[in-house]
Every structure is written in C-alpha cells, then in structure tokens.
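Quarterly update from the structural biology core.
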Amino acid sequence: MSWTKKQIEQHKKTGFTLIELLVVISIIGFLASAVMFGVNSARMKTRDAQRLSGLRQIKSAIDMYYDKYGYYPNVAPWATSEPTSFDSGSGWASLQTALSEFMLNLPKDPKPGGTSGPWDGSYHYAYGVSSGGQAYDLVAELEEINNPNTCQYKCWKYHKGIGSYPPEDSWCGASAPACGGNGICSRRMIADH
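Predicted structure, tokenized:
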C-alpha cells in the first residue's frame, strides 16, 4: 500500500513531538523518584523498629542476669556488636557468653557500619558497664532523626563510672534542646538503666 502525501502529513501530526516525549519522561522520572524515596523511608523506619526491638531484647536479658547474679555482666569497658575502635568484637562475644542462659543470640544492627561509637552513622549496639557492675548503658543510633527516642526529645545520660566520661554526662551534648540547651541534637538513641 502506498501512502499519499496527505496521509503522510496526517500521520506526522498524530505522533508525539520531542517536547511532549521529554515532558512525559520527566513526569515518569519524578514519580519514580517519589516512589523510591517512600520505599527508602519505609526501610529506614523498619530498621529503626528492629533496633528498638533488639535493644529491648538485650535489656531484658541484661536485667535477668542482674536479677540472678546481683550485678550486670562485666565485659570490656565497651562491647560493640560490630568491630569498632572501642571493641574488636571480643567484648560483644563475652557479653553473648554471659547472657547465653537468658538469650540464645544477641541481635545485631540491621544495617551495621562504621568503626566509631554508635553515632555519626556507625550503626551497631554498644554496651558499657560501671566498674562495680551496678550500672550499665546500652546504646544504638537510629536513622530517623524524628524518632521520639532520640536525643532530640530525650536527654540520655552516661552512667557514673563508665569509661573515661564524667558521671552522668549527657550523651546528647550540653547544647541539646532536651538537655536545656539550644544546639543540634544527635540521632543517638540510648536505652539506659
């Protein structure tokens, strides 16, 4: 079938122009970005929920240990669930051994990373105990800054005698709003005793 000049011109008019195609592609790209942002936000909230659950499980095992022995597990000054500058992993293994009668396996952070303490994107759990075993701190960092368990809303404190920090020093920094200051809050979340 051969096309007439008129049919060819009508056919050209029914197609999309380059600008129309670019607009459609831009809209699809924008919608895809919005969907990906929503998916990533949901993943972040899910990991934070896993962290909170993991902290509660560890805290429960630590409290059962105290009820039985009268002191908290005495491990390295700081035990971290991932190798860090504070603990090569041996402290966390010691904590796992101490709590084995109360908890089969200690949970680990769902997105482990970083080698510093549990702040500044170093996602792992950290446990510190006072020299007499009568106080401990259990620490993790959340990804979502607006979580009500973060330093933005609570003024979490170190316990007396842990590490080289002053007694009852703030995890959040003196300028954190929850501590009475007006500075920027850490995203850290601390479950302490």
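The two ends are 86 Å apart (CA to CA).
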